[in-house]
Design a protein that fits this description.
The protein has about 450 residues and is an alpha+beta fold. The protein has 15 helices and nine strands. A nine-stranded mixed beta sheet has the order 3-2-1-4-5-9-8-7-6.
Length: about 450
């Protein structure tokens, strides 16, 4: 039987995070002042891949992972004392380093999404903390969660990996964290109602980007034009406020231009008003008995209303990421009551995500056209099952690490692909403008 060619897991990860760079960075930030028993490279990989030994990311569990991978024993305090604000700074620097090394997505889009350099999904998730951290990270629901932080993520929905990661307290408004600039040019930004601001939409448009989000329930913009005409005695809508006519409409699709007033940011002590003109799309959902309304600047001549609603599903890529971080990468609850320990564990978990993305990219290149079957949730669960083995592969001496990799890579290739070959993926549905099956409704 021919020996299967290695896909190079060890080589990919040691290239993504070179040991020499880790040691130099550890000395630069002051994590390592002299040679001791705890090696910074093994420490980093243990924090990143050692979570699989328990249900939570605890220091005790990570220490055991370090001992298992390095075949050494440590006094608990020798490991615990490494969790300082300096370690947080070290992990932040490592995270930024690996994010910068993640390539732009090689998109497989052929239809609607091919028009963009990237489709960007933006969202935040809440992580509950020990109540003693209420002063550092005050929560919104103080009756049962006094302390909580928000993890804000900007990521490529097309597989290009993370773009920015920020941590704030739960009370920080999502929209104030997102910074728009030249980086949005020719990209489609998808986000939920937490980011709904006409000023943000205008800023994205002025930077030559595109956006797509849901319309707030309370919003009542002026309808200035219609992109689709309906035959017969249809309800006149141009010149009307949306909420004044929405309850009387019976058409299946709404596709109109809207106008809304908003205030620009304050410059030189002055705050000016402006008028924004955007596109509003509505698709009636018979099961919910109401319209799903979207605001965008996607051109009507290239993106039909039904396709716009389907493209919005690309935002679920970030929701699936959060599910993976919490369910598979042990970020649901952080038991420590010390701020810097919590922050270190959060940043280590995000590095786990980038590492996972890198290994997944290796497999995608190996399986070629079958890469579409590498679904997010299936992959994250498989990575958790193999995380301690991958840790051993990276930490072990090169010759031994490559020998360990042979079996692990065989398992990854055997288990990574979704067995349902013809099941369409989230991004395929978005690219082709396909909606989930929904009942039909007569238009008027």
């Amino acid at each position: 039987m021919a020996r299967q060619k290695s896909i190079g897991v060890r080589e990919r990860l040691t290239t993504l995070i070179p040991p020499a760079h880790v040691r130099a960075l550890a000395e630069e930030v002051g994590l390592v002042k002299r040679r001791r028993k705890v090696d910074p490279v093994a420490l980093l990989w243990s924090l990143t891949l050692g979570f699989a030994l328990g249900k939570e990311r605890t220091i005790a569990g990570l220490r055991r992972a370090y001992e298992k991978a390095t075949k050494t024993t440590l006094v608990p305090s020798a490991f615990y004392d490494r969790f300082t604000p300096v370690l947080v700074r070290f992990l932040v620097r490592v995270l930024q380093f690996v994010i910068d090394r993640v390539a732009e997505p090689a998109s497989a889009a052929r239809e609607y999404l091919a028009a963009f350099k990237d489709v960007v999904a933006i969202d935040a998730t809440v992580i509950r903390l020990h109540e003693l951290l209420a002063r550092s990270y005050p929560g919104c629901r103080t009756n049962h969660t006094k302390a909580a932080l928000k993890l804000h993520v900007v990521m490529s929905a097309q597989g290009g990996g993370p773009r920015t990661v920020k941590i704030t307290d739960e009370r920080k408004h999502d929209g104030r964290v997102l910074k728009v600039g030249k980086w949005v040019a020719q990209k489609l930004l998808t986000f939920d109602l937490g980011y709904f601001r006409y000023q943000l939409f205008d800023c994205i448009e002025r930077n030559k980007g595109f956006f797509l989000t849901r319309l707030k329930t309370s919003a009542n913009p002026l309808i200035t034009a219609a992109h689709r005409a309906w035959r017969g005695a249809s309800v006149p809508i141009v010149g009307q406020r949306l909420q004044d006519v929405l309850g009387r409409l019976q058409r299946k699709v709404i596709d109109v231009e809207i106008e809304a007033r908003f205030s620009r940011r304050t410059y030189a002590g002055k705050r000016s008003g402006a008028t924004g003109r955007f596109r509003l799309v509505g698709v009636f959902n018979a099961e919910a008995g109401r319209y799903h309304l979207y605001v965008t600047n996607l051109p009507a001549d290239r993106f039909p209303a039904e396709a716009v609603a389907a493209i919005y599903r690309a935002r679920w890529a970030v929701e699936m990421l959060f599910k993976s971080l919490k369910s598979d990468f042990a970020l649901e609850d952080l038991p420590s009551s010390r701020k810097h320990i919590v922050e270190a564990l959060v940043y280590a978990t995000v590095i786990t995500w980038v590492v996972s993305h890198a290994v997944r990219g290796l497999l995608a290149a190996h399986v070629g056209a079958e890469a579409r079957r590498l679904t997010t949730l299936r992959w994250s669960r498989l990575l958790r099952a193999c995380a301690d083995d991958i840790l051993a592969i990276v930490v072990a001496p090169p010759r031994h690490g490559r020998r360990l990799a042979a079996h692990v890579e065989m398992v990854l290739l055997a288990e990574a692909l979704d067995p349902h070959r013809n099941r369409s993926t989230l991004m395929e549905d978005a690219d082709h403008g396909r909606q989930p099956c929904r009942p039909r409704r007569q238009a008027a």
